[in-house]
Amino acid sequence: MIFLQLSEADLQSMISKATKQAIDEALSIAKSLEPQRDLTRRQIKEEYNISYATIHRAMNDGKLNFYRVGGRVMFKQCDVEKVFLKPIPAKAFIKIKK
Asked: How much of the chain exceeds pLDDT 70, in percent?
């Protein structure tokens, strides 16, 4: 039998790393199972609450990839999320009470 002595800070660090890794893996699996949609500017505006000006600025700056289908400008959902959604830090999920 092996006994380890860990400080509270070491234990918090280990828990944080393990939790972040588990969350990242779960998100990766969930995203791979979720079909990607193609979005219009209107859908981005309504679903993500982003103005047309912000969408156009991201397009003009080369930050947001787009393509045209007929007369429509379309965006891949994953590209929209990379540009406009910021990841939540792992610390937001962990509260340790003393």
From this structure: 83
Q: Give the domains, in start order, of the chain with CATH numbers.
A: 36-93 (1.10.10)
Nearest one of 69, 4, 12 to 38, comparing CA atoms: 69
Chain position carrying tokens 């380890």? 4
Beta strands (DSSP E) in 5-80 are 38-39, 67-69, 72-76
Angle between helix 41-48 and 52-60 (nearest 10) = 120
Give the C-alpha separation, 10 to 30, whole Å. 30
**Is the predicted pLDDT of residue 67 greater than 90, yes or no?**
yes
